[in-house]
Amino acid sequence: MTDPVHTSTHDRLTAPAHAAFRGTARVVGAIYLAGMVLGIGGNLLILSILGASDQLSSVAENSDLLALGAVLWLFAVAGDAAHGILMFPVLRPHGERMAMAYFGARVIEATLVAVMTLLIVCQIPLSIANEAAVPSEATTLEALSGVLHEAELFAYEFGMVALGVSGVVLCTVLHRSHLLPRGLATWGLIGNALLLAGSLLQILGLELNSIHTVLGGLWEVFIGVWLLTKGFVTPSPEAADPSAAGRAVGAGHSGPVPTARNR
């Protein structure tokens, strides 16, 4: 006979992952995939313009495309913030502090990338002023454009640091809670750890040419498809609570009820 108090508590902690949060899993999966498409599309537009030898002239000729690239990034940023909100009730039963850490890191990342897009858009009025500037003013505007570009790159890298932190926190909880297969959670943990370490190295001046983002990026695509099609995994009683079998044997034991925090 199983202790009814412990059984009902366990059901409250595990059942939502599969049933109540099935819709959440699909929305989060869709946001992962949409964010990847929007972010890559926006990045390609921005790099094609800001990567030109005469940056301000390129911006003046393609200001609409640059603004479009920034808007695509803002949509991706909104999805990043939504991740933190949507996943909070999913992660909270498995550790409130970890859920808060994930939410906070996602908000910080979204804020930093939003700052990056603002710095990018600031290139447009600079390019307009540059077209009517005398040579001495043009030199100053070009220097200011270069400073803004460097600031934009730093904002992006700091945003990727926050993304790496959020990914490590998320995959740690997913690994411990069995909400995803452990192999998939481990893949995400390694990929996000590489993203975090690589972004820190880039801030320190080491150019990695985005190689540190590949494993984590592939994981985001895979996890997006996985959540859309399969959702979260319902942990078995033994996996979710290793002491369940012991409690079943000692049905008369009236120990403390496990809380969401220490699970």
Description:
- The chain has eleven helices and no strands.
- It has 263 residues and is mainly α.
- Helix 3 crosses helix 6, helix 6 runs antiparallel to helix 7 and helix 8 packs antiparallel against helix 9.
What attributes does this structure have?
263 residues; elongated; disordered N terminus; mainly alpha; disordered C terminus
Kindly summarize this structure in a few lines.
The chain is 78% helix and 0% strand. It has helices at 4-18, 22-50, 55-61, 63-91, 96-121, 123-131, 135-177, 182-203, 214-229, 237-240, 244-249.
How many E strands? 0
Oligomer: single chain
Helix proportion of residues, in percent?
Answer: over 70%
Number of domains: 1
- The helix/strand series, from N terminus to C terminus, equals HHHHHHHHHHH
Low-confidence sequence ranges = 1-17, 237-263
What is the overall pLDDT average? Answer: 83
Task: Draw up the topology in text.
Layout: H1 4-18, H2 22-50, H3 55-61, H4 63-91, H5 96-121, H6 123-131, H7 135-177, H8 182-203, H9 214-229, H10 237-240, H11 244-249
Helix pairs in contact: 2-4, 2-9, 3-6, 4-5, 5-7, 6-7, 7-8, 8-9
